[in-house]
Amino acid sequence: MAPMLRKLQKQRSLTFLAANNTNNKVAVSDATSRVNLLDLDEAGLRAFFESIGEKPFRAQQILKWVYHHAQTDIQAMTDLGIALRQKLESIAEIRLPEIIQEQRSTDGTIKWLIGFRGGNAVETVYIPEPKRGTLCVSSQVGCALNCSFCSTGAQGFARNLTCGEIIGQVWLAAQALGHERNGERRITNIVMMGMGEPLLNIDAVVPAMSLMRSDLGFGFAAKRVTLSTAGLVPGIYRLRDSIDVALAVSLHAPVDDVRTELVPLNRKYPIAELMQACRDYVSEKHKRSVTFEYTMIDGVNDHPEHARKLVKLLRTVPSKLNLIPFNPFPGTKYRCSSQERITQFQQIIMKGGLIAMVRKTRGEDIDAACGQLVGKVQDRTKRSERIKLQMAETTP
Ligand code: SAH
Fold it and tell me: Are 281 and 163 a contacting pair, CB within 8 Å?
Protein backbone atom coordinates (compact mmCIF):
# COMPACT_ATOMS: atom_id res chain seq x y z
CA MET A 1 0.00 0.00 0.00
CA ALA A 2 1.23 3.50 -0.78
CA PRO A 3 2.87 5.17 2.22
CA MET A 4 0.70 8.19 1.54
CA LEU A 5 -2.51 6.26 2.11
CA ARG A 6 -1.06 4.56 5.14
CA LYS A 7 -0.41 8.00 6.55
CA LEU A 8 -3.93 9.15 5.75
CA GLN A 9 -5.37 6.00 7.26
CA LYS A 10 -3.36 6.47 10.39
CA GLN A 11 -4.43 10.08 10.66
CA ARG A 12 -8.07 9.23 10.35
CA SER A 13 -7.96 5.73 11.86
CA LEU A 14 -9.50 4.28 8.75
CA THR A 15 -9.84 0.55 8.60
CA PHE A 16 -9.73 -0.68 5.06
CA LEU A 17 -10.92 -4.24 5.33
CA ALA A 18 -9.72 -5.13 1.89
CA ALA A 19 -7.68 -2.35 0.47
CA ASN A 20 -5.72 -4.30 -2.11
CA ASN A 21 -8.15 -7.09 -2.69
CA THR A 22 -9.15 -8.52 -6.03
CA ASN A 23 -12.87 -7.90 -5.90
CA ASN A 24 -12.30 -4.27 -4.90
CA LYS A 25 -14.53 -4.37 -1.86
CA VAL A 26 -13.49 -1.72 0.61
CA ALA A 27 -15.05 -1.03 3.93
CA VAL A 28 -14.41 1.60 6.49
CA SER A 29 -14.95 1.40 10.20
CA ASP A 30 -16.21 4.92 10.69
CA ALA A 31 -18.19 6.88 8.16
CA THR A 32 -17.02 10.22 9.54
CA SER A 33 -13.35 9.39 8.99
CA ARG A 34 -13.58 9.09 5.22
CA VAL A 35 -10.67 10.43 3.18
CA ASN A 36 -11.41 13.97 2.03
CA LEU A 37 -10.43 13.99 -1.64
CA LEU A 38 -9.75 17.74 -1.38
CA ASP A 39 -6.76 16.82 0.79
CA LEU A 40 -5.02 15.20 -2.18
CA ASP A 41 -3.28 16.79 -5.16
CA GLU A 42 -2.83 14.92 -8.44
CA ALA A 43 0.05 12.77 -7.19
CA GLY A 44 -1.82 12.06 -3.96
CA LEU A 45 -5.00 11.09 -5.78
CA ARG A 46 -3.12 8.79 -8.15
CA ALA A 47 -1.53 7.03 -5.19
CA PHE A 48 -4.90 6.84 -3.48
CA PHE A 49 -6.57 5.16 -6.46
CA GLU A 50 -3.71 2.73 -6.87
CA SER A 51 -3.89 1.81 -3.21
CA ILE A 52 -7.54 0.85 -3.54
CA GLY A 53 -6.86 -1.24 -6.64
CA GLU A 54 -8.07 1.32 -9.19
CA LYS A 55 -6.40 2.90 -12.19
CA PRO A 56 -4.38 6.06 -11.35
CA PHE A 57 -5.99 8.01 -14.24
CA ARG A 58 -9.14 8.21 -12.11
CA ALA A 59 -7.30 11.07 -10.40
CA GLN A 60 -7.66 13.23 -13.51
CA GLN A 61 -11.38 12.56 -13.74
CA ILE A 62 -11.93 13.55 -10.11
CA LEU A 63 -9.82 16.70 -10.47
CA LYS A 64 -11.74 17.85 -13.55
CA TRP A 65 -15.06 17.30 -11.84
CA VAL A 66 -14.08 19.15 -8.69
CA TYR A 67 -11.98 22.01 -10.05
CA HIS A 68 -13.24 22.48 -13.63
CA HIS A 69 -16.93 21.72 -13.14
CA ALA A 70 -17.26 22.57 -9.44
CA GLN A 71 -18.96 19.22 -8.89
CA THR A 72 -18.57 17.81 -5.38
CA ASP A 73 -21.23 15.10 -5.49
CA ILE A 74 -19.47 11.81 -6.23
CA GLN A 75 -22.71 10.28 -7.54
CA ALA A 76 -22.89 12.94 -10.27
CA MET A 77 -19.45 11.97 -11.65
CA THR A 78 -20.95 9.86 -14.40
CA ASP A 79 -17.73 8.77 -16.13
CA LEU A 80 -16.62 6.91 -13.02
CA GLY A 81 -19.10 4.03 -13.35
CA ILE A 82 -21.68 3.07 -10.74
CA ALA A 83 -19.56 0.48 -8.92
CA LEU A 84 -16.60 2.81 -8.50
CA ARG A 85 -18.83 5.66 -7.37
CA GLN A 86 -20.31 3.44 -4.69
CA LYS A 87 -16.96 2.18 -3.58
CA LEU A 88 -15.64 5.74 -3.43
CA GLU A 89 -18.60 6.99 -1.41
CA SER A 90 -17.94 4.33 1.20
CA ILE A 91 -14.34 5.40 1.80
CA ALA A 92 -14.04 8.96 0.59
CA GLU A 93 -15.86 12.26 0.48
CA ILE A 94 -15.47 15.74 -0.90
CA ARG A 95 -15.83 17.93 2.15
CA LEU A 96 -15.69 21.67 1.66
CA PRO A 97 -15.46 24.25 4.43
CA GLU A 98 -18.41 26.61 4.80
CA ILE A 99 -18.85 30.35 4.24
CA ILE A 100 -20.14 31.65 7.58
CA GLN A 101 -20.18 35.33 6.72
CA GLU A 102 -19.48 37.61 3.77
CA GLN A 103 -18.57 41.30 4.14
CA ARG A 104 -18.21 43.75 1.26
CA SER A 105 -16.13 46.91 1.50
CA THR A 106 -17.11 50.13 -0.26
CA ASP A 107 -13.93 49.70 -2.36
CA GLY A 108 -15.07 46.31 -3.69
CA THR A 109 -12.92 44.17 -1.37
CA ILE A 110 -14.78 41.10 -0.10
CA LYS A 111 -13.95 39.25 3.10
CA TRP A 112 -15.32 35.81 3.93
CA LEU A 113 -15.28 34.11 7.29
CA ILE A 114 -14.78 30.45 6.44
CA GLY A 115 -15.58 27.82 9.03
CA PHE A 116 -14.32 24.29 9.55
CA ARG A 117 -15.46 21.25 11.45
CA GLY A 118 -14.79 21.75 15.13
CA GLY A 119 -15.66 25.45 15.26
CA ASN A 120 -12.52 27.21 14.04
CA ALA A 121 -12.71 29.75 11.22
CA VAL A 122 -10.31 31.80 9.10
CA GLU A 123 -10.65 34.83 6.87
CA THR A 124 -10.18 34.88 3.10
CA VAL A 125 -10.08 38.18 1.21
CA TYR A 126 -10.72 39.12 -2.43
CA ILE A 127 -9.13 42.36 -3.65
CA PRO A 128 -10.33 43.52 -7.08
CA GLU A 129 -8.21 45.99 -9.05
CA PRO A 130 -8.73 47.32 -12.58
CA LYS A 131 -6.61 44.65 -14.23
CA ARG A 132 -6.47 41.90 -11.67
CA GLY A 133 -8.24 40.19 -8.82
CA THR A 134 -6.16 38.89 -5.93
CA LEU A 135 -7.34 36.23 -3.52
CA CYS A 136 -5.61 36.26 -0.13
CA VAL A 137 -5.73 32.78 1.40
CA SER A 138 -5.09 31.62 5.00
CA SER A 139 -2.87 28.66 5.92
CA GLN A 140 -3.41 28.30 9.69
CA VAL A 141 -6.10 29.11 12.26
CA GLY A 142 -4.31 31.95 14.05
CA CYS A 143 -0.54 32.13 13.95
CA ALA A 144 2.19 30.83 16.23
CA LEU A 145 4.76 33.50 15.39
CA ASN A 146 3.66 36.47 17.51
CA CYS A 147 4.97 39.30 15.32
CA SER A 148 4.47 42.39 17.47
CA PHE A 149 2.65 44.47 14.82
CA CYS A 150 0.18 41.84 13.53
CA SER A 151 -3.28 41.29 14.95
CA THR A 152 -3.48 37.70 13.67
CA GLY A 153 -0.57 36.91 16.00
CA ALA A 154 -2.41 38.40 18.96
CA GLN A 155 -5.25 35.87 18.42
CA GLY A 156 -2.94 33.01 19.35
CA PHE A 157 -2.80 29.74 17.47
CA ALA A 158 -5.27 26.87 17.14
CA ARG A 159 -4.06 24.53 14.40
CA ASN A 160 -2.78 24.02 10.88
CA LEU A 161 -5.30 23.92 8.07
CA THR A 162 -5.50 20.79 5.93
CA CYS A 163 -4.85 20.92 2.19
CA GLY A 164 -8.62 20.61 1.64
CA GLU A 165 -9.30 23.54 3.95
CA ILE A 166 -6.79 25.69 2.03
CA ILE A 167 -7.87 24.77 -1.50
CA GLY A 168 -11.48 24.86 -0.20
CA GLN A 169 -11.10 28.64 0.39
CA VAL A 170 -10.17 29.07 -3.29
CA TRP A 171 -13.03 26.80 -4.41
CA LEU A 172 -15.62 28.70 -2.36
CA ALA A 173 -14.34 32.14 -3.40
CA ALA A 174 -14.29 31.11 -7.08
CA GLN A 175 -17.92 29.96 -6.79
CA ALA A 176 -19.04 33.04 -4.89
CA LEU A 177 -17.37 35.33 -7.46
CA GLY A 178 -18.56 33.49 -10.56
CA HIS A 179 -14.92 32.85 -11.51
CA GLU A 180 -14.70 30.96 -14.80
CA ARG A 181 -11.61 28.99 -15.56
CA ASN A 182 -11.78 29.54 -19.30
CA GLY A 183 -13.92 32.65 -19.34
CA GLU A 184 -14.09 35.54 -16.97
CA ARG A 185 -11.21 34.92 -14.57
CA ARG A 186 -12.30 36.99 -11.59
CA ILE A 187 -9.33 35.64 -9.63
CA THR A 188 -6.04 36.27 -11.46
CA ASN A 189 -3.59 35.92 -8.54
CA ILE A 190 -3.48 33.95 -5.32
CA VAL A 191 -1.36 35.04 -2.38
CA MET A 192 -0.79 32.91 0.72
CA MET A 193 -0.86 36.08 2.82
CA GLY A 194 -3.89 35.51 5.01
CA MET A 195 -3.79 34.14 8.53
CA GLY A 196 -0.85 31.96 9.54
CA GLU A 197 2.72 31.19 8.54
CA PRO A 198 2.46 28.97 5.45
CA LEU A 199 5.96 27.49 5.78
CA LEU A 200 5.05 26.15 9.23
CA ASN A 201 2.32 24.15 7.48
CA ILE A 202 4.26 23.25 4.35
CA ASP A 203 2.97 19.65 4.16
CA ALA A 204 -0.55 20.93 3.48
CA VAL A 205 0.39 24.17 1.71
CA VAL A 206 2.46 22.55 -1.06
CA PRO A 207 -0.28 20.14 -2.27
CA ALA A 208 -2.83 22.98 -2.03
CA MET A 209 -0.60 25.22 -4.17
CA SER A 210 -0.06 22.35 -6.56
CA LEU A 211 -3.87 22.24 -7.02
CA MET A 212 -3.86 26.01 -7.61
CA ARG A 213 -1.15 25.59 -10.26
CA SER A 214 -2.13 22.35 -12.00
CA ASP A 215 -4.01 22.45 -15.31
CA LEU A 216 -6.33 19.86 -13.84
CA GLY A 217 -6.89 22.20 -10.89
CA PHE A 218 -7.29 25.97 -11.08
CA GLY A 219 -4.51 26.41 -13.64
CA PHE A 220 -2.68 29.49 -12.30
CA ALA A 221 0.79 30.30 -13.67
CA ALA A 222 3.74 30.06 -11.27
CA LYS A 223 4.19 33.83 -11.06
CA ARG A 224 0.54 34.22 -10.07
CA VAL A 225 0.71 32.04 -6.96
CA THR A 226 2.73 33.66 -4.18
CA LEU A 227 3.73 32.29 -0.81
CA SER A 228 4.57 34.88 1.83
CA THR A 229 6.77 33.96 4.79
CA ALA A 230 7.99 35.72 7.91
CA GLY A 231 11.39 34.18 7.12
CA LEU A 232 11.48 30.50 8.01
CA VAL A 233 14.79 29.71 6.33
CA PRO A 234 14.64 25.87 6.16
CA GLY A 235 11.09 26.18 4.81
CA ILE A 236 12.30 28.43 1.96
CA TYR A 237 14.72 25.69 0.86
CA ARG A 238 12.04 23.02 1.11
CA LEU A 239 9.66 25.17 -0.89
CA ARG A 240 12.28 25.70 -3.60
CA ASP A 241 12.73 21.95 -3.92
CA SER A 242 8.98 21.18 -3.91
CA ILE A 243 7.10 23.52 -6.23
CA ASP A 244 7.51 26.47 -8.58
CA VAL A 245 5.72 29.48 -7.08
CA ALA A 246 6.62 33.11 -6.38
CA LEU A 247 8.14 34.01 -3.02
CA ALA A 248 7.39 37.01 -0.82
CA VAL A 249 9.29 37.67 2.39
CA SER A 250 8.06 39.87 5.24
CA LEU A 251 11.26 41.79 5.94
CA HIS A 252 10.14 44.95 7.82
CA ALA A 253 13.66 46.05 8.84
CA PRO A 254 17.17 46.08 7.35
CA VAL A 255 18.93 45.49 10.69
CA ASP A 256 18.64 42.59 13.11
CA ASP A 257 17.74 44.42 16.31
CA VAL A 258 14.74 46.21 14.77
CA ARG A 259 13.66 43.12 12.86
CA THR A 260 13.80 40.96 15.97
CA GLU A 261 11.53 43.42 17.78
CA LEU A 262 8.97 43.16 14.99
CA VAL A 263 9.44 39.53 13.91
CA PRO A 264 10.77 37.46 16.85
CA LEU A 265 11.55 34.59 14.43
CA ASN A 266 14.50 36.75 13.33
CA ARG A 267 16.38 35.65 16.45
CA LYS A 268 16.48 32.13 15.02
CA TYR A 269 16.98 33.08 11.37
CA PRO A 270 18.74 36.46 11.21
CA ILE A 271 18.76 38.71 8.14
CA ALA A 272 22.04 37.44 6.63
CA GLU A 273 20.77 33.83 6.58
CA LEU A 274 17.40 34.91 5.29
CA MET A 275 18.93 36.89 2.40
CA GLN A 276 21.12 33.91 1.46
CA ALA A 277 18.03 31.68 1.33
CA CYS A 278 16.31 34.28 -0.91
CA ARG A 279 19.32 34.40 -3.26
CA ASP A 280 19.31 30.61 -3.43
CA TYR A 281 15.56 30.58 -4.06
CA VAL A 282 15.81 32.73 -7.19
CA SER A 283 19.16 31.38 -8.36
CA GLU A 284 18.34 28.26 -10.39
CA LYS A 285 14.98 27.18 -11.63
CA HIS A 286 13.07 30.08 -10.14
CA LYS A 287 14.51 32.84 -12.29
CA ARG A 288 12.33 35.54 -10.84
CA SER A 289 12.61 38.05 -8.10
CA VAL A 290 11.62 37.94 -4.46
CA THR A 291 9.03 40.44 -3.23
CA PHE A 292 9.96 41.96 0.10
CA GLU A 293 7.16 43.30 2.27
CA TYR A 294 7.93 46.19 4.58
CA THR A 295 5.28 47.53 6.93
CA MET A 296 5.86 51.24 7.59
CA ILE A 297 5.72 51.85 11.34
CA ASP A 298 6.14 55.36 12.74
CA GLY A 299 9.51 55.88 14.45
CA VAL A 300 10.37 52.17 14.38
CA ASN A 301 11.58 51.23 10.89
CA ASP A 302 10.86 54.30 8.75
CA HIS A 303 14.02 56.41 9.21
CA PRO A 304 15.89 57.50 6.02
CA GLU A 305 18.89 55.58 7.37
CA HIS A 306 16.77 52.40 7.34
CA ALA A 307 15.95 53.08 3.67
CA ARG A 308 19.64 53.50 2.81
CA LYS A 309 20.55 50.26 4.60
CA LEU A 310 17.69 48.53 2.81
CA VAL A 311 19.06 49.61 -0.58
CA LYS A 312 22.41 47.99 0.23
CA LEU A 313 20.74 44.82 1.44
CA LEU A 314 18.31 44.42 -1.44
CA ARG A 315 20.96 45.00 -4.10
CA THR A 316 22.21 41.51 -3.28
CA VAL A 317 18.95 39.80 -4.37
CA PRO A 318 16.82 40.29 -7.51
CA SER A 319 13.87 41.88 -5.77
CA LYS A 320 10.92 44.25 -5.54
CA LEU A 321 9.88 46.08 -2.41
CA ASN A 322 6.27 46.52 -1.26
CA LEU A 323 5.83 49.25 1.34
CA ILE A 324 2.69 48.57 3.40
CA PRO A 325 1.27 51.40 5.54
CA PHE A 326 0.82 49.95 9.03
CA ASN A 327 -2.81 49.06 9.73
CA PRO A 328 -3.69 49.73 13.37
CA PHE A 329 -5.78 47.33 15.47
CA PRO A 330 -7.13 47.54 19.05
CA GLY A 331 -4.39 47.39 21.67
CA THR A 332 -1.40 48.01 19.38
CA LYS A 333 1.38 50.33 20.51
CA TYR A 334 2.39 51.19 16.94
CA ARG A 335 1.24 53.89 14.56
CA CYS A 336 1.47 54.21 10.80
CA SER A 337 4.28 56.34 9.35
CA SER A 338 3.20 59.69 7.91
CA GLN A 339 2.57 60.01 4.18
CA GLU A 340 5.67 62.24 3.83
CA ARG A 341 7.82 59.67 5.60
CA ILE A 342 6.57 56.88 3.34
CA THR A 343 7.16 58.95 0.18
CA GLN A 344 10.64 59.95 1.35
CA PHE A 345 11.45 56.30 2.12
CA GLN A 346 10.19 55.20 -1.30
CA GLN A 347 12.28 57.85 -3.06
CA ILE A 348 15.49 56.75 -1.36
CA ILE A 349 14.82 53.17 -2.46
CA MET A 350 14.07 54.18 -6.05
CA LYS A 351 17.13 56.43 -6.25
CA GLY A 352 19.10 53.39 -5.17
CA GLY A 353 17.91 51.72 -8.40
CA LEU A 354 15.31 49.40 -6.86
CA ILE A 355 11.58 49.01 -7.43
CA ALA A 356 9.41 50.11 -4.51
CA MET A 357 5.61 50.26 -4.55
CA VAL A 358 3.40 51.58 -1.80
CA ARG A 359 0.60 49.10 -1.30
CA LYS A 360 -2.79 50.75 -1.15
CA THR A 361 -4.70 49.81 1.95
CA ARG A 362 -7.84 47.96 0.90
CA GLY A 363 -10.97 46.86 2.71
CA GLU A 364 -10.24 49.00 5.76
CA ASP A 365 -13.92 49.48 6.60
CA ILE A 366 -14.36 45.70 6.99
CA ASP A 367 -11.00 45.04 8.73
CA ALA A 368 -9.72 43.13 5.71
CA ALA A 369 -6.35 44.87 5.39
CA CYS A 370 -2.91 43.28 5.95
CA GLY A 371 -2.46 42.07 9.49
CA GLN A 372 -6.10 42.64 10.42
CA LEU A 373 -7.43 39.15 9.76
CA VAL A 374 -8.61 37.42 12.90
CA GLY A 375 -11.13 34.63 12.11
CA LYS A 376 -12.32 32.52 15.02
CA VAL A 377 -9.36 31.01 16.78
CA GLN A 378 -9.73 28.51 19.58
CA ASP A 379 -6.39 29.64 20.97
CA ARG A 380 -4.32 26.85 22.43
CA THR A 381 -1.41 29.07 23.39
CA LYS A 382 -3.31 31.28 25.86
CA ARG A 383 -1.57 34.19 24.15
CA SER A 384 -4.86 35.95 23.36
CA GLU A 385 -5.85 35.81 27.05
CA ARG A 386 -2.47 37.16 28.17
CA ILE A 387 -2.72 40.04 25.70
CA LYS A 388 -6.28 40.89 26.83
CA LEU A 389 -5.08 40.95 30.44
CA GLN A 390 -2.13 43.19 29.56
CA MET A 391 -4.47 45.54 27.69
CA ALA A 392 -6.84 45.71 30.68
CA GLU A 393 -3.92 46.54 32.96
CA THR A 394 -2.44 49.23 30.73
CA THR A 395 -5.65 50.99 29.66
CA PRO A 396 -6.89 53.42 32.31
N1 SAH B 1 3.12 34.78 7.98
C2 SAH B 1 3.27 35.19 6.61
C3 SAH B 1 1.96 35.39 5.92
C4 SAH B 1 1.13 36.55 6.43
S5 SAH B 1 1.21 37.77 5.23
C6 SAH B 1 4.17 36.42 6.55
O7 SAH B 1 4.52 36.94 7.60
O8 SAH B 1 4.56 36.82 5.47
C9 SAH B 1 0.60 39.16 5.97
C10 SAH B 1 1.43 40.39 5.60
O11 SAH B 1 0.88 41.52 6.28
C12 SAH B 1 2.84 40.25 6.11
O13 SAH B 1 3.75 40.89 5.27
C14 SAH B 1 2.74 40.96 7.43
O15 SAH B 1 3.98 41.32 7.89
C16 SAH B 1 1.85 42.14 7.09
N17 SAH B 1 1.21 42.71 8.26
C18 SAH B 1 0.93 42.10 9.42
N19 SAH B 1 0.35 42.95 10.29
C20 SAH B 1 0.26 44.14 9.66
C21 SAH B 1 -0.29 45.41 10.02
N22 SAH B 1 -0.85 45.60 11.20
N23 SAH B 1 -0.23 46.39 9.10
C24 SAH B 1 0.30 46.18 7.88
N25 SAH B 1 0.82 45.01 7.48
C26 SAH B 1 0.80 43.99 8.36
Answer: no
Q: Tell me, in angstroms, the distance from the centre of ligand 1 to residue 318's CA.
A: 21
- What is the C-alpha separation between 88 and 35, in angstroms, rounded? 10
pTM of the model: 0.90
User: For residue 139, which atom of ligand 1 is closest to its CA?
Assistant: 3
With the most atoms of ligand 1 within 8 angstroms of its CB, the residue from 193, 249, 261, 336 to mutate is 193
Whether the CB of 157 sits within 6 Å of ligand 1: no
* pLDDT by residue, tens only, the chain of 396 residues: 344 444 444 443 332 222 333 333 333 334 458 999 999 999 999 999 999 999 999 999 999 999 999 999 999 999 999 999 999 999 999 999 999 999 999 999 999 999 999 999 999 999 999 999 999 999 999 999 999 999 888 889 999 999 999 999 999 999 999 998 888 899 999 999 999 999 999 999 999 999 999 999 999 999 999 999 999 999 999 999 999 999 999 999 999 999 999 999 999 999 999 999 999 999 876 568 999 999 999 999 999 999 999 999 999 999 999 999 999 988 899 999 999 999 999 999 999 999 999 988 888 888 887 777 778 888 888 777 776 666 565 544
Give yes or no for residue 297 CB within 6 A of ligand 1.
Answer: no
